[in-house]
Amino acid sequence: MATINDNRKYKAMSEADGDKLFSEYAKTVLDITAIAAQADADKARIEAEKNRKTEALQAAADRFKQELERYITANPERFQSPRKRKHELGTYGYHSVRASVSIIDDLVIDFALSHNRPELIVTTHKVVKDAVKDAVSAGEKLPGVTRMPAGERINLTVKKEAIEAVERRITGK
What 3-state DSSP class applies to 37? Predict the structure, then answer.
């Protein structure tokens, strides 16, 4: 069954109608930008307020933790059995941990490459897009590749300046 594309409405539109439609589109995009910018500004304000409020508390918590660690270290006999002291708000004391290894990836990669140690790293594969384009242009069919023919495509662009003006109005930056 054939699909009929009825575009009589759009054929009857004037350039002014097209301009009005684009204006509505652009205003909607700018409204979306304003909402997103306001949300980003709100998040930044809330994050700054959280940091301001918790900074002194975190410093105090760090001091208390350091003092507790010194207390535990100075009194190991108090943490033999049980190894942890129970408190209504939690526990503190010793616990066993397994040995672990801290790895700085960039340093290990440099070492592996310069000392011929390929077992320490893994090589990842990446598509060479220029080679794929050349192969497709030469007529080769490759899975996962679709050739997009040249031609006319519809483009709608709201001016970057208009978007930035909305963002500045909201964020004050």
Answer: helix
Kindly report, residue by residue over 98-148, the tens digit of the pLDDT: 889 999 999 999 999 999 999 999 989 999 999 999 999 999 999 999 888
Nearest to 23 by CA among 169, 154, 159: 159
CA distances for 111 relative to 115, 119, 123, 124, 131, angstroms: 6, 12, 15, 18, 31
CB environment 138-170: b (16+ within 10 A), e (fewer): eeeeeeeeeeeeeeeeeeeebeeeebeebbeeb
pTM here?
A: 0.57
- Check the CA dihedral 114-116-120-124 and report its sign: positive
Angle, vertex CA 87, rays to CA 99 and CA 68, nearest 5 = 55
Q: Residue 109: which residues within 8 A CB-CB, separation 6 or more?
A: 121
In which residue are the tokens 């939690």 written? 90
In angstroms, the CA 72 to CA 154 distance is 70
